[in-house]
Amino acid sequence: MVASKKFGIVFDPARCTGCRLCEQACVDAHPEDIVKEPRIRIEFNATTNAYAARYCVQCDECAPSAVCPSDLIWFEPKAKTWILEEERCIACDACIPKCDYKAIFIDHTLGIETAYKCDMCINAGGPKCIPACPSSALSIGVEEIEKVRGNEV
Asked: pTM of this prediction?
């Protein structure tokens, strides 16, 4: 498996305490959105006995965008961010299995009938999860990513 370097949100599991303040900051950064759920997920990995984060790493090639029947996942070049148009999503679930990082969410049990993912808080001036983290487990920078980053829970 070949690794590549990617600019974006970087997660340090050794620093994460599991407080989930990043999740709340994410929700607060999207007050007008349909979805009132975090686009970053902090979960405990019992195998590694550490917390893991699931969020969009803004891949160079976004496989979910190729399968969206409504063409609602597109790249915003200025922000270097993949955008998913939640308000027009038909919740077909086609994008979910195509994301190698399990970072596109649909929760039918909550009555949320749209997909959603990290958009780097593009409408709020940048990622709000980062300054919300009291242990500095999140930062902006360059991360070496692979097909699977070890974030399975």
From this structure: 0.84
